[in-house]
C-alpha cells in the first residue's frame, strides 16, 4: 500500500500517542507502587538503608503536623519563601549572633563547597583529616587545589597535633567533630587549644568546624565551638537539620560565624534556596528540644546495643558519639557490603585509606538493628 504524507503523519502520530500512552501507564504504575509503599511504611524496595547516616525515626510529630498544616496553595508562591527569615532570626537569637552571623543553605554541602572556593587556592591548600567527611576534599581536588591529608590516630580520632603542624599557610582547615566516619570526638579543651594554636601560627587561615552530628554526642564529652566562633572571625561552624532533627529530605543547613567570613562563602558559591516548607519544618524541629533529646537518647541506646554485638563477635569498634559506627571487620568493606546487600541491608561506602579493614554502618531503628545484627552475625561468623 502506498503511504501518503498525510497517512505517514497520522501513523506517526498514532505511534507517538501509543508510545506516550505506554510511558504514561508505566509512570502511573510506578507512582502507584511508590504511593502504596509509602502508605504501608515499606521504602527503598525493602532494602534496609544503613548507609547515609539519616535518622531512621525521621522528624518528631510536631514537625510532621507543621508540614501538614503549612502544605497549602501558598506553596505556589514560593519564590520569596515564607519562614526563611524567621528561621534565620531564631538561629541568630538562640546562638547570640547578629542576623548576618547565620548563613542558611540547602543542607551543609553548599557551605563546605563554598568555603573551599572562598578560601583555598593552588597556593593555599586545604588541610583535612582522613578518613573524614569528604565534600571539602573532593571539591578541592576537582579544582586542582592541594589537599593535605592527616591520617587518624590509633584511636581513630582526628590527630589534632598533626593537623596543627600542617595548617601553617593553609587556606582552610576542615575539622569534623564528631568525626564521620569514625564517630570519635574531641572535648572543648582540646578544640580550644587546637584553634588558638592555629590562629597564632597562621592567622589568615580559616577553620571550618563541622558539627553536623553534635546532637547525638554526650554533652559531657563535647560542646559546641561557638565561643571560639565569637572570638575569632576566621573560625566558623556548619550544622545540618539532616541528622538528629530528621529532615534530610527537606535540605536545610546553616553556618555560624563572622559576617565577613559567611559573606565570602556566600559570594563564592551558591547556597541554594531554602524552601518555605523546609524553613518552617526546620524552625519547628529546632524548637522541639524534647524530641531532640529523645532522639539522642534513643540513638545512644541503639548504638550501645550494636556496638556490644560487634565486640561480642570479636571486632574493634571505637567509641562513637554519632548515629553510625566504624567497625574494624578485618576485611574489605566491599566484601561486607556485598554480603549484606544480598540480605537486603545496605551499609556504607568505602572510606580510604581504611577501605580494606573498616566499614561504616549507620544506625537504624531498634527493630531494624535487631534484624541487622542477626545478618551481621551470619555474614561475619
Structural features, described:
Strand 3, helix 5 and strand 4 (147-151) form a beta-alpha-beta unit. By secondary structure, this protein is α/β, with parallel strands linked by helices. The chain folds into 2 domains: 48-59 and 290-380, Aspartate Aminotransferase, domain 1, CATH 3.90.1150.10; 61-287, Aspartate Aminotransferase, domain 2. The longest helix has 36 residues, at 5-40. The chain is built from 13 helices and 11 strands. Helix 4 (109-119) packs across helix 5 (135-142), helix 4 packs across helix 9 (259-268) and helix 11 runs parallel beside helix 13 (366-380). The chain has a 7-stranded mixed sheet with strand order 2-8-7-6-5-3-4, sandwiched between helices.
Amino acid at each position: 500500500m502506498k503511504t501518503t504524507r498525510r497517512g505517514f503523519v497520522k501513523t506517526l502520530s498514532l505511534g507517538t500517542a501509543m508510545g506516550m500512552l505506554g510511558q504514561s501507564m508505566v509512570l502511573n504504575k510506578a507512582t502507584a507502587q511508590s504511593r502504596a509503599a509509602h502508605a504501608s511504611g515499606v521504602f527503598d524496595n525493602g532494602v534496609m538503608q544503613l548507609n547515609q547516616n539519616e535518622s531512621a525515626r525521621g522528624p518528631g510529630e510536631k514537625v510532621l503536623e507543621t508540614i501538614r498544616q503549612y502544605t497549602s496553595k501558598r506553596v505556589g508562591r514560593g519564590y520569596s519563601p515564607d519562614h526563611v527569615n524567621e528561621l534565620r532570626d531564631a538561629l541568630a537569637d538562640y546562638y547570640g549572633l547578629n542576623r548576618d552571623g547565620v548563613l542558611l543553605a540547602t543542607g551543609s554541602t553548599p557551605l563546605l563547597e563554598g568555603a573551599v572556593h572562598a578560601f583555598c587556592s593552588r597556593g593555599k591548600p586545604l588541610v583535612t583529616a582522613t578518613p573524614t567527611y569528604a565534600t571539602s576534599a573532593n571539591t578541592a581536588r576537582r579544582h586542582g587545589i592541594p589537599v593535605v591529608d592527616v591520617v587518624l590516630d590509633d584511636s581513630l580520632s582526628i590527630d589534632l597535633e598533626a593537623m596543627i603542624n600542617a595548617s601553617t599557610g593553609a587556606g582552610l582547615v576542615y575539622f569534623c567533630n564528631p568525626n564521620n566516619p569514625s564517630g570519635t570526638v574531641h572535648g572543648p579543651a582540646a578544640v580550644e587549644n587546637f584553634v588558638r594554636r592555629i590562629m597564632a601560627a597562621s592567622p589568615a587561615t580559616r577553620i571550618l568546624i563541622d558539627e553536623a552530628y553534635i546532637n547525638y554526642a554526650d554533652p559531657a564529652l563535647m560542646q559546641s565551638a561557638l565561643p571560639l566562633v565569637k572570638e575569632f572571625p576566621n573560625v566558623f561552624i556548619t550544622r545540618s537539620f539532616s541528622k538528629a532533627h530528621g529532615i534530610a529530605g527537606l535540605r536545610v543547613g546553616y553556618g555560624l560565624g563572622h559576617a565577613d567570613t559567611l559573606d565570602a562563602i556566600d559570594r563564592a558559591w551558591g547556597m541554594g534556596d531554602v524552601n518555605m516548607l523546609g524553613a518552617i519544618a526546620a524552625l519547628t524541629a529546632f524548637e522541639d528540644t524534647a524530641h531532640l533529646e529523645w532522639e539522642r537518647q534513643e540513638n545512644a541506646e541503639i548504638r550501645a546495643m550494636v556496638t556490644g554485638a560487634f565486640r561480642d563477635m570479636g571486632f574493634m569498634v571505637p567509641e562513637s558519639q554519632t548515629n553510625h559506627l566504624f567497625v574494624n571487620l578485618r576485611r574489605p568493606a566491599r566484601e561486607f557490603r556485598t554480603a549484606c546487600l544480598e540480605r537486603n541491608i545496605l551499609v556504607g561506602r568505602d572510606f580510604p585509606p581504611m577501605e580494606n579493614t573498616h566499614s561504616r554502618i549507620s544506625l537504624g531503628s531498634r527493630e531494624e538493628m535487631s534484624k541487622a545484627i542477626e545478618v551481621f552475625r551470619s555474614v561475619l561468623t
